[in-house]
């Protein structure tokens, strides 16, 4: 079973809007609707679960009903941090240990069908898969405004989503992580890489268009992309 887990618990503080950015309308649809459309229409996706802030659950339910998203089977209450929301989704599917969980940011609405297909195909060989693109710019490692190191950018990639895992692998990683009093994580791959380090994580090449809507300029890019689609 291929399950798309859409993380939609963010509050959109950096964008400076009253509503969370996933509920902003672009080209007559909310950002999260653009994201859901791709997974709803993908032939390999069997089910969709949305992780949402409890204060916006009613709004999310209305969107699902009006949009006819038949693959959405679960609306899950998210946590304070991103990893709390991922954990809530993992627990919701703990009876399906061999399920493929494709965890995707709600505010990456320009994910394409091909990338999703490649991630699912990679899960036939690997238990952990991510999407990333090469770094173009030179990268500085900085401390106190002073350059400490300049990594070889040929080995650097920028992480995207979906990040996909067998449910049992991700659950195992998080169970170990929560035993660590210093646990912090920016994404799910970092949890697997640290706490289930014997599991290789395969990288599927992403696309520049699969950007995360973070700043106002990103809204304009989304508008242009949708008009050209």
Q: Any chance you could write out the topology, listing elements then pairs?
A:
Layout: E1 2-8, E2 25-26, E3 29-30, H1 31-41, E4 47-52, H2 57-67, E5 72-77, H3 82-92, E6 100-105, H4 113-122, E7 128-134, E8 141-143, E9 146-149, E10 157-166, H5 167-177, H6 188-195, E11 202-205, H7 216-228
Parallel strand pairs: 1-4, 1-6, 4-5, 7-11
Antiparallel strand pairs: 2-3, 6-10, 7-10, 8-9
Helix pairs in contact: 5-6
Describe what you observe in this structure.
The protein is 33% helix and 25% strand. The chain is of the alpha/beta class and 229 residues long. The strands form three sheets. Strands 5-4-1-6-10-7-11 form a seven-stranded mixed beta sheet, with helices on both faces. The chain is globular and about 50 Å long.
CATH class: Alpha Beta
Total beta strands: 11
State the major sheet.
Answer: 7 strands, mixed
Spatial strand sequence of the major β-sheet: 5-4-1-6-10-7-11
3D shape: globular
Mean pLDDT over the residues: 93
Low-confidence stretches: none
Please give the alpha-carbon distance between the first and last residues.
29 Å
The helix-strand sequence is EEEHEHEHEHEEEEHHEH
CA-based gyration radius: 17 Å
């Amino acid at each position: 079973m291929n399950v798309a887990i859409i993380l939609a618990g963010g509050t959109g503080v950096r964008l400076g809007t009253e509503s969370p950015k996933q509920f902003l309308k672009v080209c007559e649809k909310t950002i999260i609707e653009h994201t859901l459309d791709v997974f709803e229409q993908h032939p390999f996706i069997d089910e969709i679960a949305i992780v949402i802030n409890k204060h916006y659950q009613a709004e999310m339910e209305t969107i699902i009903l009006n949009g006819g998203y038949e693959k959405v089977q679960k609306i899950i209450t998210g946590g304070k941090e991103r990893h709390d929301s991922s954990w809530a989704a993992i627990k919701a599917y703990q009876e399906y240990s061999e399920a493929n969980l494709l965890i995707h940011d709600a505010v990456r609405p320009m994910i394409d069908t091909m990338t999703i297909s490649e991630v699912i195909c990679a899960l036939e060989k690997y238990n952990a898969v991510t999407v990333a693109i090469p770094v173009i710019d030179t990268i500085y490692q900085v401390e106190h405004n002073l350059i400490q190191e300049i990594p070889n950018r040929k080995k650097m990639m920028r992480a995207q989503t979906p990040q996909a895992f067998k449910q049992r692998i991700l659950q195992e990683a998080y169970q170990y992580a929560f035993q660590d009093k210093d646990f912090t994580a920016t994404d799910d791959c970092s949890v697997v890489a640290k706490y289930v380090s014997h599991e290789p994580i395969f990288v599927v090449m992403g696309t520049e268009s699969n950007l995360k809507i973070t700043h106002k300029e990103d809204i304009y890019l989304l508008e242009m992309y949708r008009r050209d689609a």
